[in-house]
């Protein structure tokens, strides 16, 4: 017997991911989501859109050394931080993503940076080039931060990453001083607050279901199937309100 869903093609749905470039669990969550979509084997086709969330909106321009930041914010000892990093790196490897916490040679120390400008260019990338290209830029920013220890809080470094992804550098530079884009970022962050999102990643599927945190691939499979079964039809044009 022919499967009606298969003959109709994959169920298309949107997934809005509230995320911060500084968040290692966000890149892990994305990797796990991709594994879940692979398990669905064409059953569901997801359009991913990245939404802004600043874990540290008051982070100064000079940034903060990562270990010191974790000790201050979460009251962890150096030994506790090292243990959590080890666990996180193992989970990341299982998710198919890379986190590099060990300082190599003369590499700079791992830092936390202000990400407001990064969120501006990500919003611009979505508007100007669409979800797939926005995801390319988001992943490049993850790599720049977690693997290459680049200061993405510095505008010229941020613009270098943008340009390396094939975006127009001059266009991105103009966006950084565009008050409308800045307001857009603030509005979407306020939207996250209204949705009671207090940590990331937070994925909203079809504007209907919130999946908090980085979950196992099977959790995403089950959640997406539930949404597809409960809300058949086309994806909404806008993120969850």
Helix tally? 10
Quaternary state of this entry equals single chain
Helix amount: 40-55%
Beta fraction: 5-15%
* Biggest sheet descriptor: 4 strands, mixed
Mean pLDDT: 91
Q: How far apart are the termini?
A: 40 Å
Shape call: globular
Major sheet strand order = 2-1-5-6
User: Helix/strand/pairing class, anyone?
Assistant: alpha+beta
**Unreliable sequence segments:** 1-6
Strand segment tally: 6
What string, H for helix and E for strand, traces the elements in order? Answer: HEHEEHHEHHHHHEEH
Spatial extent as radius of gyration: 18 Å
Fold and architecture overview:
This protein is α+β, with helices and mostly antiparallel strands and 241 residues long. 53% of the residues lie in helices and 12% in strands. The chain contains 10 helices and 6 strands, in the order H-E-H-E-E-H-H-E-H-H-H-H-H-E-E-H. It has helices at 4-8, 24-40, 66-74, 78-95, 116-129, 131-146, 155-164, 169-176, 179-194, 217-230, and strands at 11-19, 44-52, 64-65, 111-112, 202-205, 209-212. The strands form 2 sheets. Strands 2-1-5-6 form a 4-stranded mixed beta sheet. A two-stranded antiparallel sheet has the order 3-4. Strand 1, helix 2 and strand 2 form a beta-alpha-beta unit. The model is unreliable at 1-6 (pLDDT under 50).
Question: What's this, in brief?
Answer:
The protein is of the alpha+beta class. 53% of the residues lie in helices and 12% in strands.
